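A.,

Following up on our hallway conversation. Structure tokens first:
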């Protein structure tokens, strides 16, 4: 059954077609070998016989029947496989080394294939022969022939060698086709098996990679990469669903309970109003949480990828800084802004603006009055000597985030214990992290000033430069705007 399946595979069919073409060409080669060996020998014999019989006919014309009989008798005595016979009219034997005229009729072309009793060591043996038959003047029959026993033996050897050659070619080819398709089928079957297991619900299964680096390995590698991506997305979706189920249920319950309690009491208009206002406030918070969750899911799923464009961050950073500067000052914080002209990156404006907003919001929220908050945009990676990147930094002089919590705070709904009394839902850094991932950027969290009692937080986004974009080709209007603004801010705000 399995073998029959093998015969249906594409590899097997391709191998068989190849085998057919190969066999046909092998057949042609062997046929030409036959034509040049056995065929050549046969033609050679015929030519010799033809020449000899013509010579004898000539002799007969010149020297008459006696002369011919003399020559034939002489040649017949020489032996060596040459056969002669001359018969007078009425089938009377005249001369020759054949005991009698062959019992076969001459063909229309004058050729005759017959057998005769050849003399061999210790007796007679029936041998095949071929001869030329000529009827001379006065009704004399002349036959000149050759013993073709040896030649036919060689010929049949050649034919059987050719036959077996083709048979062996066919058999080895067929075995090769089966082995080849078995290998291919085996490797495809591993892919099929993995797909079935995944469809069965085990999304963690992967196609085995052999490490040969061939096209099957490449296929397996690509499939695995695709599966990784799908698994990540699925986990993300599941996480969002879990988050909604757990973290949005309690505020909704709270709203519902408050409304129920208010309805049960004999309350006055003011109490109702107060309950409704609180409901609106909490609903707004719920809505913003929803929005943030969706934005994170969107960024993680890469849905915003279609709206990405080649852009430079200067304007965006300057605009956001301009918005947050008064907020910071209102809270008694010193605000710094330092924007350099940087190469273009590949980004989504809306998502990036939201990320910068979240970082500035945190810096301002968690830094107490008298502290400092700043934003900067520079060329190069996290170290001044690393090239080919753009780094956006938001820093503050607040309490900072302890090293052990720096991974945790990127998760959804994670808020540090000391932040319990400040408003927030713990989604800010999750969104920044998702936006970073969408832009293939790195989000680095570190101390702003490790030696200070309040180390502060330094959140840095390191973007890869958009390769295709020409730095000089950036829209001049945008650049001048951002330069102008950053210049202004650096001038007024920087110490
Ligand atoms: N600049 C900062 N300084 C000190 N701690 C910070 C800073 N930024 C974030 N954190 C800590 O990380 C936690 C997670 O931050 P995140 O922005 O994700 O949520 P949040 O600010 O609490 O709420 P949200 O941003 O959703 O309003 C915060 O609760 C806070 O404890
Ligand atoms: Mg926040």
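Then the amino acids I'd put at each of the 495 positions:
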């Amino acid at each position: 059954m399995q073998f029959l399946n093998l015969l249906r595979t594409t590899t097997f069919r391709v191998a068989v077609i190849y085998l057919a073409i190969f066999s046909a060409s092998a057949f042609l080669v062997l046929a030409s070998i036959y034509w040049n060996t056995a065929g050549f020998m046969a033609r050679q014999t015929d030519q010799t016989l033809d020449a000899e019989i013509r010579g004898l006919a000539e002799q007969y014309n010149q020297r008459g029947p006696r002369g011919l009989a003399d020559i034939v008798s002489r040649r017949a005595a020489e032996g060596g496989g040459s056969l002669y016979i001359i018969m007078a009219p009425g089938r009377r034997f005249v001369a020759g080394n054949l005991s009698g005229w062959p019992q076969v009729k001459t063909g229309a072309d004058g050729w005759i294939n017959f057998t005769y009793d050849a003399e061999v060591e210790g007796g007679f043996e029936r041998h095949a022969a071929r001869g030329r038959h000529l009827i001379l003047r006065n009704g004399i029959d002349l036959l000149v022939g050759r013993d073709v026993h040896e030649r036919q033996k060689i010929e049949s050897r050649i034919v059987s060698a050719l036959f077996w050659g083709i048979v062996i070619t066919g058999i080895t080819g067929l075995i090769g086709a089966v082995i080849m398709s078995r290998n291919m089928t085996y490797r495809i079957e591993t892919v099929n098996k993995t797909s079935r297991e995944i469809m069965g619900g085990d999304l963690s299964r992967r196609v085995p990679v052999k490490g040969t680096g061939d096209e099957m390995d490449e296929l397996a590698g690509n499939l695995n990469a695709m599966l990784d991506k799908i698994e990540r997305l699925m986990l993300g979706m599941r996480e969002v669903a879990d988050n909604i189920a757990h973290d949005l249920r309690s505020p909704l319950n709270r709203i519902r309970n408050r409304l129920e309690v208010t309805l049960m009491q004999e309350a006055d208009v003011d109490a109702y109003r107060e309950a409704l206002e609180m409901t609106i406030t909490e609903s707004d918070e719920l809505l913003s949480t929803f929005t943030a969750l969706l934005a994170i899911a969107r960024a993680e799923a890469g849905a915003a990828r279609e709206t990405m464009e080649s852009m430079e961050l200067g304007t965006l950073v300057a605009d956001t800084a301009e918005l947050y500067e008064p907020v910071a000052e209102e809270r008694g914080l010193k605000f710094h802004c330092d924007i350099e002209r940087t190469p273009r990156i590949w980004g989504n404006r809306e998502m990036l603006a939201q990320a910068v907003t979240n970082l500035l919001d945190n810096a301002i929220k968690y830094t107490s009055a008298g502290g400092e908050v700043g934003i900067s945009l520079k060329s190069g990676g996290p170290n001044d000597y690393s090239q080919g990147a753009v780094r956006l930094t938001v820093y503050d002089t607040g309490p900072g985030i302890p090293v052990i919590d720096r991974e945790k705070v990127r998760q959804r709904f994670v808020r540090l214990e000391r932040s319990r009394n400040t408003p927030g839902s713990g989604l800010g850094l999750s969104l920044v992290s998702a936006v970073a991932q969408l832009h293939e950027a790195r989000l680095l969290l570190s101390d702003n000033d490790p030696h200070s009692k309040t180390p502060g937080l330094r959140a840095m986004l390191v973007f890869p430069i958009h390769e295709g974009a020409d730095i000089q080709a950036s829209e001049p209007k945008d650049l001048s705007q951002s330069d102008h603004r950053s210049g202004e801010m650096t001038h007024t705000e920087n110490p």
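The first strand starts at residue 82 and ends at 88. Curious whether your intuition agrees with the design.

B.
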